[in-house]
Amino acid sequence: MFRVHIYSGSLALVGKSGVGQAANHQHEALERTGVSVVTDWQPRADVVHINTVLPCSFRAARRARREGIPVIWYGHSTEADFRHSFVGSDLLAPLFKRWLCLCYNQADLILTPTPYAANILNGYGLRPPVQALSNGVDTDFFAPDPARRRAFREAYGLTDRDKAVISVGHFMERKGILDFIELARSTPQVRFYWFGHTDPALVPRKIREAMAAAPANLEFPGFLSQSELRDAYCGADAFLFCSHEETEGIVVLEALACGTPVLLRDIPVYNGWLTDGVNVYKGRNGWELRQKLAGILSGRLPDLTEAGRQVALARSLPNIGRALQDIYAALPARKKSSLPLRPRRRMA
Question: Which GO molecular-function terms appear in the entry (predicted)?
Answer without folding.
Answer: glycosyltransferase activity
